[in-house]
Amino acid sequence: MLRLKNNRAVFATVMLILALTLSANAAKKSAITTKNFSIVYSPANKSDAQLVVDYAEKALDRVSKDLGYEAPTGLSRIPIRVYSSRPDFVSGTGIDKDRLVVGRAWSGTEQIEIDASGTYAWVEQVTAHEITHVVIARILGIRASKLPLWANEGIARNESNEASSEDNDLVGDAISKGDYIPLSQIAKRFPSDDEQVSLAYAEATSFMRYLKTKHGMGTYKRLLSETAVSGNFDKAVERVTGSTLSALEKAWRKSVSKGFSASWLGRNLPTVVGALMAILCVLAYKAIKLRQRWNSAKWLIEDSDDGLDYGPPPE
Ligand SMILES: [Zn+2]
What we know:
Elements: H1 2-27, E1 30-33, E2 37-41, H2 46-67, E3 78-83, H3 86-93, E4 103-105, E5 112-115, H4 123-140, H5 149-159, H6 165-177, H7 194-215, H8 219-230, H9 233-241, H10 245-262, H11 264-308
Parallel strand pairs: 2-3, 3-5
Antiparallel strand pairs: 1-2, 4-5
């Protein structure tokens, strides 16, 4: 019995040491320091961190040029925490596991957190998106809250090349169904419902792309510098575009709706072709059946004729 007890004690001790070693390894972090970033990652996932390093420096350079930002000397590095798996990202950030969040950027500390698993989004795009938020915050400084959330997200999505024609389709569809969310309602926060939040991002992305297409590549840069000076985004829009925000929103909605209706046939072509084929099949089947019936009837008549035509009765 004693021996058994001793064995149990040894086993328990070994398991405890193993558990402590594993948790120590899990909590262990490594870091890569570059010119502008300090990237923290789990030691086993250095390749993911290395990828983010490359993406981050390139994105910071490009986004800074696009948005007219020049970093003053002596600024601290932007900290990025790289999570290599979706469960690590969820547990490390504490986000709701059902929410499709793939990155975060904190104001103040400028801390960026990235889901580098690629489960829901390209790591390159997530990195560029969050870095854009940091650059915008640096440009605006104490005026950061004056920029509507939809403008912030719209710029980040366009700068990270996440914008696509799907945004316009989503917005066009929402307008046609009466589900459109006015921009004024997503200026401070986005809805929490998954479908609504997708629409809010699509609206933000589509509208900011519309502004850039209509008023030139330097639109974001001018909008941000005007907002940083006046602290009034609506006035910044008027100075940069010559139109009021509500007039621009109206014109953009009109152009999206027009494009949505024009591309209806294109989007529904497979369905339309399928429906036509089905109708043609039914018609062909009916035609065959009709012909068969007509032929049967003809035979019947011929048979009847044969049967009825006895000729004149014999004299
Ligand atoms: Zn964002």
